[in-house]
Amino acid sequence: MLMHGLGVDVENIDKQIRFCDYLAVAQIFLQDNFLLDRPLEFGDVKPRLLGHWGTCPGINIAYANLRAFCPDMKFILGPGHGFPALQANLYYEGKLEEYDERATRDYGGLAYVCKEFSWPYGFPSHASPVTPGVIAEGGELGYALANAYGAALGRPEEYVACLIGDGEFETATALASLNLNKLLDAAENGKVVPILHLNGYKISGPTIYGRMSERELTNLVRGFGYEPVWVDGRNTEDFQYALQEMPENAFVLMMTPKGWTGPKELDGVKLVGNYASHQVPLPFAKSDESQLRMLENWLKSYNFRELYDEFAG
């Protein structure tokens, strides 16, 4: 469905997000049965579960919307610990295959990307310099916005989007980098659009900015010389209109629940919209039948097979 006047297909954006959400989960959990051609078994689950799920849905939402809005836009990812999402999008776009001939658009390539994630001699659990286009290790929170301004320095043709986690935004480096917009002349340098991902939680509790009111955050952003643009990341059409109508010196505040589209609760503990979804929300899926079935239902919720058939052609 093309959106009138914007030239983007909302359904395709939503398909990319759904594809990459599934692939993020599959990378964290699966070592076999990647298309769920049979009921999920303990043997299909990796013996050691590593990765960070909670930030992945927001990364997929931001990446897919930004690429649809401006395909040539540079994308700088602050929460690089959400590497399954970044790698899923690189695979979806075919960019990963350009650098790694094993990442093909078929079952063999899908199996390779999923199984080799956080696997000995495979892909690391965080973004790293072996990833196409990555220059820093994904655990180094706080430096993304400074890198974004560096990418735009002396390059007026560049358009750089920078996704910043709300936990990352608590670092001194991230806050100090907000002053860089005062140092770069718009005529001689590229455009930088910071995007604060407000999912409300970091690894072990709530974030400061996730607990601020909209008024407080709006005033904070304006105080640094930006114009705030509020976006509900769950609504693709609204996201696209917001991108199309961005003012100068825009600062996007993107809201999504932590761990969005994942399991809602485990053993009485809230997962979606809570810090408990930050890493592996079903830590005993390898040995607990209830968690295995929850994982299976979670994966099935994306209807991935129909997306894969279209993707693989």
Give the radius of gyration.
19 Å
Q: What is the count of distinct domains?
A: 1
Low-confidence stretches: none
The level of helicity is: 25-40%
Strand order of the largest sheet: 1-2-3-5-4
Mean pLDDT comes to 95
The CATH level-2 architecture is identified as 3-Layer(aba) Sandwich
Distance between the termini: 20 Å
Shape: globular
CATH level-3 fold name: Rossmann fold
Q: Could you explain the architecture of this structure?
A:
- With 313 residues, the protein is α/β, with parallel strands linked by helices.
- It has a single domain, classed as Rossmann fold.
- The chain is 36% helix and 11% strand.
- It has eleven helices and seven strands.
- The strands form two sheets. A five-stranded parallel sheet has the order 1-2-3-5-4, sandwiched between helices.
- Helix 1 packs across helix 3 and helix 2 crosses helix 9.
- The longest helix is centred in the first third of the chain and has 20 residues.
- The radius of gyration is 19 Å and the shape is globular.
- It starts with 9 loop residues before the first helix and ends with a helix.
- 42% of the residues are buried.
- The mean pLDDT is 95.
Task: Label this structure with key terms.
313 residues; two-stranded antiparallel sheet; 7 strands; globular
Describe how the helices and strands are arranged:
Elements: H1 10-29, H2 56-69, E1 74-77, H3 83-93, H4 95-99, H5 107-115, H6 144-152, E2 159-165, H7 172-177, E3 191-198, H8 214-223, E4 227-232, H9 236-244, E5 250-255, E6 265-266, E7 269-270, H10 289-300, H11 304-312
Parallel strand pairs: 1-2, 2-3, 3-5, 4-5
Antiparallel strand pairs: 6-7
Helix pairs in contact: 1-2, 1-3, 2-3, 2-9
